Amino acid sequence: MSYLRMLAAGIAAAGLAFAGTADAQTPKRGGTLTYAISAETPHYDCHASDTFATLHFASPFYSTLMQFDLSKYPGVKGDLAESWTVAPDLMTYTFKLRSNVAFHDGTPLTSADVKATYERLRAPPTGIVSTRQATFGDIDTIETPDATTITFKMKAPNPAMMEHFASPWNCVYSAAKLAADPNFPRNNIMGSGPFRFGEHVKGSHVTGTRNERYFEPGKPYLDGFRGVFMSQPAAMLNALQGGQVMAEFRGISPAERDRLVQGMGDRVRIEESGWTLNLLVVFNVEKKPFDDVRVRQALNMAIDRRAGAQGLARQATLRDVGGLVRPGSPFAIKDADLAKVPGYGTNIAAARAEARRLLQAAGASNLKFVLHNRATPQPYTPAGIYLVDQWRQIGVEVEHRQSETSPYLAAMSSGNFDVAVDFSNLFMDEPSLGLAKYVSFDRAPENRSRSIDRELDRLYDLQSRERDTTKRYDIIRQFEARMFEQVYQAPLLWWHRIIPTNKAVMGWEMSPSHNLGQNLAGVWLNQ
Amino acid sequence: MLGYLANRTLLMIPTLVGVAILIFFMLRVVPGDIVEVKLRGDGGSVTQETIEKERARLGLDQPMIVQFGQWMTGLATLNLGNSMWTDRPVVEEISLRLELTLQVALMATVIAILIAIPLGTLSALFKDTWIDYTIRIVTIAGLAVPSFWLGMIIILGLLYLFNWLPPITYTPFYVDPVANISQLIWPALAVGYRYSAVVARMVRSSIVEVMKEDYIRTARAKGVYEKLVVSRHAMRNAMLPAITVIGLEFAFLIGGLVVTEQVFNLNGLGRLFVQAISRNDFTLIQSIVMLIAVVFIVTNLVVDLLYAWLDPRIRYGSK
User: ∠ at Cα A138 (A133, A144), nearest 5°?
Assistant: First the structure.
């Protein structure tokens, strides 16, 4: 059984299969979908972004080479690609593109555009940011034998490459536009997606209108859409309840769900799923005393995650206690094994006694530090408050400092923090994607702890090349055990996704990632 | 009067230059780097070379005095430059929000005046009666209740009582007056209530003081009707301090409505200001501060001119 099939089976077994949202009805054409976007994208460039705010804004305007098939998650299907072949040694991927695709300016989309896109992703020119540079580092060469054929040759096999080709972040840009200005996509929208760009009123909304030349026959169904930026949850809930917006696709908290159900009754559809997102506690190992493993271990084991999961699940989008891989997915640690790890089990009194002893041994009994956190209500604020309380119980004094998203991320990227609440935002349950955050900082800049650990690197490489799922599972356990021992970063809790949509919204598919399925091509309104 | 106006207008220049110097150098002293925030704020890996390139593009690699010179030249030629974050002209970024913010501020001011002057006057004329007590309770509540909280109550009231909410995106008045008013009347009411409470308290105390003046007693002794005593003699004088408060409150509303804007999901200047500060967008912050300074100065000038109109004893520019 391939590990992808195993993933699918595992997810289904965990009860996380997502029922299709639309009833079996014939889609109706017309109407404008208005939905809330709880953050405004800082720019339009998918390649440079790691926030859902960019995808919920830009996905309807762009196509990707492949895409996830949400009805068969984590299966993939073609978007621009009509067919494809993968060499048995996983060293060559050849895609045949659809021949009827045009950009919104009328120019045809060819293999040259796909090539320019992936060249920009894997080796961006100076001054251009690609947050997926490491992901596509395995690509050796890209060839375009003709206008509708593109071949990727690899430096090394990567079993998850097809899923990476389906990443929603790989918006295909026009080669001509990139040649004229490599930074063109940062401030301009010109794609080949189901909707043409209408307007972006900064601070207010984005609109799109149906692309009549979209390559999928009959789609999109909507005449257009309007994404309204609503950063305040209360305003967003009011708008949902009042019918001014018909959906919010990132996720709401259980308390917010209950309010909507109470207020809207059968006018609202609620869908729930595990979420490929977790919060982490990250220690900056370049700062004292967090360079001392005993301090990191003490702070990690003082957190009562079991009690936290119960309490926070009532008010925040956090729910599951887990290790480095999402609980319920096939490569996740078994709960019985996880419970043996201090801080992840039930005997918190013993863990805290040990934490105090470790702090004393490290000469950090009167430890004080600043917890750097994101100023986003869900779930960062409750998580931060919870951590401050947990550490107070072992005599550690913590100042909780929250910053807006961009300064928060900038401080973490430049190492300007002591301890931080970080997040792992994945678009699929693929360990190579999720574990990349934990390998050495000189290989993975997204490792905010700035740790260098060659043993973790070795284990990471080993698991990423291993095609036998049982062996891979064991290697991942070794990787996880090493991380639990060194605690450069430690998972806090995994998120739980709750999506409210007005019952009139049809054809949108739920998934465990808020980054997927946002091009709105299949969405229609039943009204 | 024209001489006075010209004099005051000229005096605005050193004041604005002072504000420009202060804001420019204070921003450079405060820790934070827009280029770091802009390029590393996505969480990706960015080389130092890329950072330096962007810094040079934005002109941040030049000596501070050169940057200051460019900023002052821009101000003098009314070229405020581009936002360092969005690369769009600052004028465009601000004007998009200023229209909405100005309208809310004007509507709130009208609402406040319509409520405050009758209430403040009644309260003063019926001092220490049940009318006075009732009005004082209403005004003290206005001071105690935050505008954003009242805004939330208004929104929930509309939702639960009428199953209706105002539009969530802004439509200019000249495009659709009904949509425009139905969106902005609610925040204007929420803000206007607090605003009216401040003004009403001032009107009340001014009228109470004025009614004790000799000229009021003289007017009454001459047999002038009480209505005329109040409207012609008392009100004109009592309005002077109230106008000062109205002016200051109006100026505060330009840029000071951050939380109320969030409650009503308004794309106003306050939110833009906070966003610009969190991103260290120097050009945008500087321009908004200058705009607020201009609003304060112009409002003060208007208040001074109104003084002269209300009190014939005040004659600006005459010797």
Answer: 90
CB contact under 8 A, A413 and B40: yes
Q: Is the CB of B169 less than 8 angstroms away from the CB of A232?
A: no
Residue B30 burial class via C-beta count within 10 angstroms: exposed 0-12, middle 13-18, buried 19 and up: exposed
Helix (H, G, I), strand (E, B) or coil at A222: coil
Asked if the peptide bond before residue A289 counts as cis, ω within 30 degrees of 0, the response is yes
Nearest to A131 among B43, B96, B155 (CB): B43
Residue B170 with chain A: CB contacts under 8 Å: 201, 204
In this structure, the strands spanning A397-403 and A368-374 are parallel
Whether the per-residue pLDDT at B232 is higher than 90: the answer is no
What whole-number distance in Å separates Cα of residue B26 and Cα of residue B21?
Answer: 8
Identify the residue among B33, B35, B39, B42 best suited for mutation to test binding to A, counting A beta carbons within 10 A and taking the highest. B42
Residue B125 has a CB neighbour count (10 Å cut-off) of 17
Place of tokens 């360079």: A291
The domain limits of chain A are 3-227+504-525, 274-496
CATH of region A274-496:
3.10.105.10
CATH 3.40.50.2300 holds for A3-227+504-525: no
* pLDDT over 70 at B271, yes or no: yes
The per-residue pLDDT for range A388-401, each reduced to its tens digit, is 999 999 999 999 99
Q: What is the pLDDT of residue B318?
A: 52
Question: Nearest-CA residue of chain B relative to A45?
Answer: B42
With an 8 Å Cβ cutoff, are B168 and A42 in contact?
no
What are residue A139's DSSP bridge partners?
A154
Residue A129 is nearest to which of B50, B87, B155, comparing CB atoms?
Answer: B50
DSSP B299-314: HHHHHHHHHHHH-TT-
Is B152's CB within 8 Å of A226's CB? no
Chains A & B: contacts with CB separation below 8 Å:
133
CATH of domain B96-268: 1.10.3720.10
Both tokens assigned to A192: 């080949």
ipTM comes to: 0.83
A497: nearest Cα among A280, A305, A270, A332: A270
Cβ-nearest to A42 among B41, B97, B264 = B41
A133 lies within 8 A of chain B by CB: yes
Q: Which distant-in-sequence residues (6+ apart) come within 8 Å of B117 by Cβ? A: B199, B200, B203, B242
Does an H or E element contain A495, and which?
strand A489-502
Option in B38, B45, B96 nearest A202 (CB): B96
Across the interface, whether the CB atoms of B278 and A49 are under 8 A apart is answered no
Give the domain ranges of chain B. 96-268
* Residues A365, A355: Cα–Cα separation, whole Å: 10
Give CA A37 to chain center in angstroms.
16
Greatest CA separation for chain B: 85
* pTM (2 d.p.): 0.86
